[in-house]
Every structure is written in C-alpha cells, then in structure tokens.
Amino acid sequence: MPKGVQPTAEQVNEVKTRFLQNLEAEPPAVPFHPSDLARIKDSDVWITQLLEAYKLDVEKAIVRLRENCEWRQSYGTNDINATNVNQEYLNDGEIYVHNQDKDGMPLLIVNFSKHSKSKNQDDLIRVMVYWVERVQKESNYEKKITLFMDMTGSGLSNLDLDFIKRIIGLFETKYPNAPNFIVVHELPFLLNAAFKIVKSFMPAEALEILRVTTKKDIAEYVNKDNCLKAWGGNDDYSYKFQA
Fold first, then answer.
1. Number of helices and strands (H, E) in the chain?
2. CA dist., res. 175 & res. 204, Å (int)
3. For the residues of 33-63, what is the DSSP string, one character each?
C-alpha cells in the first residue's frame, strides 16, 4: 500500500504546537492520559499519520487529535488489557490478530461465521480496540493493520450491518490511518446486495483501500503461507488466545 503524501516537518510541528497551546488555553474537564500526551510531545508518528490520513489538512488533524485524546481518556483505551474485556469474545475466535499481509502488516481478522446479532456490540468493539492497541504498541505505533473481514461460510444469520458500521466508524474516526487494506474475503452471493449497502456508508478513504477477494486472488494481498487453509492457503492455524 503506497503511503499518502508525506507531511513536512513544519506541518507536523504546527499541529503539535497548536494542539498543546489549545490544551493549555482550554484544558479538558478530565486530563488526557499521560501516555497519549507523551506520544504527542515525544514523537511525530501519531501526528504524521493523522496528516497523511487527512491529506495534509492541518485544521482537521488538530481537531481529530483532540477528539481522539478525549475518546481515549473516556473509553479507558490505555488501560484495556486481556483481563478486562469480555472473556468469551476474546476466546471464541470472532476477532483476533494472526499473520500478516504482503506488506508485512498484521491481519486483524473478523470471522463473520462466528458472529451473531445476539452478541453485545459494545463488548465486541472493546475486544477489537484491545487487539488494535496491542498490535500498535508492539510496533511502537508505526505499523498499519489490514482489517480482514472473513466471510467464509457466513450467511444471512451472521450479517449485522450495524456491527459492520461500528467497525468502519471505529477506524474512520478513532484510528483513521491504521488500515493498510480492508479486505472482504469470500463474500457469499447471498450477501452481495447487503454489501452494496455497506459500501454506501464507507468513507472515500476506506473505499480506496477496500479489496474484495476470493480463494483465486487472495494471494495478491496475503501470500499462501499467511493464508488460512479455509481461505485457500497453507496455514492450518486454529485460534487460541495467547496473552
């Protein structure tokens, strides 16, 4: 995946300086998490990624950075760990990270054959945030993630447009520059009409990196050794949570 237009050092510095000035002039009701403030003060990665995601729009990057810090503080993002998310969902293999795409970016897999509308969406999204944060921390926030929507063996009973909207919204607003690709794999013919609805609420930036794959062409994005056997690859991995 080619990178977007790279921001200049001046643009990164402007976002950082103005964000910190705004913070001093209008402090939040509840202070932002020290880890997030350290990421902003001590590194350019987060701001660079936001500027890339928003095509060098400095104003938008400043607003989003503040919104992200507010969300992370209220959501308790920095304190999410394997012990304080829904244990059933963490262990059932609907959402997990395994292997990588052709660019070396981790695959965040959502196995829709295991999804049911009866599951608690808030808890599922929290498990997803756990995995995103875990992957980002392991790569020092420098690696992107390929969101792999695995539709293999799924049917109408697994289809949950509200849940898919929540996933897309999470990446659009909270992790805008995290996705390398969004891969929808083995979409059943029955779900084609529903998928057109999904595409209608995806932002332009997400549509640019959206890929719909089958067993025939998955190797363009994930090589055979990193593909599960169910996807037409060589990996016979079966999910079991490991901290």
1. 9, 5
2. 15
3. PHHHHHHHHH-SHHHHHHHHHTTT-HHHHHH
Residue range 148-157, pLDDT digits in tens: 999 999 998 9
Please say whether the dihedral angle defined by the alpha carbons of residues 75, 144, 106 and 233, taken in this order, is positive or negative.
Answer: positive
Structural Rg of the chain based on CA atoms:
18
| Tens-digit pLDDT profile for residues 120-140 | 999 999 999 999 999 999 999
Q: Are 229 and 235 in contact (CB under 8 A)?
A: yes
Is the whole-model pTM more than 0.70? yes
Residue type, 24: E
Residue recorded with tokens 């503080």: 73
DSSP letters spanning 178-242:
-EEEEEEES--GGGHHHHHHHHHTS-HHHHHTEEEE-TTTGGGTS-GGGSBGGGTSSB-------
Determine contact, residues 109/98, Cβ cutoff 8 Å: yes
